[in-house]
Amino acid sequence: MHTQTIFELSQEAERLLQLSLHNLQALKKMPAATFDETNLVGKVDNANVLPLHFSARGVEAQQATLHNELRKITRLEMVLAIVGTMKAGKSTTINAIVGTEVLPNRNRPMTALPTLIRHTPGQKEPILHFSHVGPIDALAQQLQIRLFNYDRAKLAQQLEIDKDMAALLDRIAQGDAFDKHYLGAQPIFQCLKSLNDLVRLSKALDVDFPFSAYATIEHIPVIEVEFVHLAGLDNQLGQLTLLDTPGPNEAGQPHLQKMLNDQLARASAVLAVMDYTQLKSISDEEVRRAISAVGRSVPLYALVNKFDQKDRNSDDEDQVRALISGTLMKGNINPTQIFPVSSMWGYLANRARHELKHRGHLPDPQEQRWVQDFAEAALGRRWRTADLDDIEHIHHAAELLWEDSLFEKPIRKLLHAAHANASLYALRSASHKLLNYTQSAREYLDFRYQGLTVAYEKLEQNITRLEEDMTLLRTSQASVSDEIEHEVEEALAAAEIFIHGQQFEIVEAIDAWFHDGQMMETLGDGKADLRLDDRYNPGQLVLENEGQAQIALSKIRSACETILLAAQERISRELVLRFDELENTLTRSLNDAMRPIETRIKEELNHAGFRARISFPAFQSSALSFNTRSLFTNVIAPENTPTGQTSRSGSMRETVSRWLNSPGWGGDDDVDTSTRYVIDIAALHEKLIGHVAHFCEQIRKALAAQVDVSVTAGMATFFAEFSLSLAGLQESLRSSLAIRQQNESSVQMLRQHLQQCIRTANWIHEDARLLRDDIQTLFAAEQP
């Protein structure tokens, strides 16, 4: 590592950040017209859209971003933001990356506040620092007053009061304050659980949670611990820190989307945790939209979790990378930076290896539940406590489980690289943020300067025309919405006809297999041991040998599964094509409707003398396609077979039960003797037909819901961004008009002020570009 070079580059980055902050302060002192943003802000927040032009809050956001980069530069800290939906396994993934359990897992949102996890060499036991605890204590006092006469039964109707929530309520009632430091996994878990339960409790009691007090990264909780995978490596110049971010709309808290966007914008790199089984779900689309909004200013990586649920018919690693990179992320992420993994297997295997290395054996499985989870994953469902005493075998099983988790590759290519180049990541992040700032600042300042040079009458005309354009936009929105609604209805109606036809074809294929002799042909091997016995119902298959019965049942399952999977592939392929076409149609409709307004605005401003660089939004609705295979898998997911079955043929019933998602089918009809084994073919056939109907109905419902949510969200975001663009232009023009009404000397002074700010922004931009190029050169030199 080029220590002296990095030191000099960090000094230069710090100088440019300080200069940019000084320039922002100068911008804040510029006179501007009063502009009521109250209504606009409400609309923007609801649509999760950030301002496109400088405004009072826009300048504050820029300052916060630059201050954050300055803080990271002084520490040479690389912040890797981890983002994912609630069920994607984000906490488990972070535990797997760190190598030990630092975040709790509960089947509810667990990231009310962003949390930093900082690699600290030598810190074997995690410690949480929560220095900015004051707002939480103030909230607890508010809740204590609110709860004094509040009916506990009424509260129980509003939220689940488990043992954690009950303990929190008692703590609030007693007035216990939060500590500023927590040492050890369990105290940390309790603190983070309490913070998340406070969010739920505040919502139930209609008390505002102080999210704004934790908007800056300096105020959020920090966990310091040595990352197991980095232990023993040479200390590098710079520091690696993970940022656990709240998922979009976790726990019904829409404002978390804005918090997520703010945190991602301030990260050095972003790691998306995606659910392999839900890659095209609506919630996963929200995550993809959030990380895509970060743009190319930070590196993007993805861990595709739950890859252990892949079966022989699922997409392999290369197919998953191609799907995410090309289709889902629209080329915003390189396929080589996408890693299919099993975070749970990776976490369990690594923790077992760690325990074996330092203690020589695993903890008591009754005391630490993770040991049971590890044993089941590594040894199988039939493991016994005695198996854990064979240390050599357990170590081998842990190594195999780690290998199967596929976690070695991201640890080596992402974590080790991030640790080794933390200082370069911090510098690159600062250079990109500087370039983004100067680009926006120059465009805004140029526009404001032009407003002081064009004719006064032209300014008035453009303000009036913009008001007309905003009215025209609202009118267009209503008409376009009607047109798009019609397109969606037609697409869903056509999909319904297609799905109905597919259901008919599947049933025909299944009927043919059961009734046209194909079943007996498939079961032909060893048929001396099997026959249809007239003494039983004609729909029963009687076999004399249990082994042959198991083989027969496997053949039946395989044949029917082949029919269903072939149909699933047809449905998935056809629906993807249909809704890709719908997305293109909707995009074209919106663009056609808005293009006249966009063209008119640009022409009017250019005609008035403004060199306007205006970029209006594009409509995106990539969640219109959906993962049919995922729906199918959910329909036939395994379920536990009821206990108490002593028949030796129980294994056959269990297999078919898992396949049909119908535990205990045919349990009363099975003949359990030492010589005969009965499979109720008629019952199996009937349940298959019912399963097909249920499957197709689920497709219809999921399709309608996803299209509705995608179109509604996409339309709302599109028009909110378009309106915001117009409002930003109007605000700038009004400010210029108000200033032009002052005396000439004041206008002249402002022109000079603007010119100085423009020159400064140009200097910063050029120096930041050179800084970025130098950093890129160093990055290239560090690559193996």
UniProtKB/TrEMBL annotation:
Pfam families: Dynamin_N (PF00350). Residues 74-412 form the Dynamin-type G domain. Residues 449-476 form a coiled coil. It comes from the Bacteria. The keyword Coiled coil applies. GO terms for molecular function: GTP binding; ribosome binding. This is Dynamin family protein.
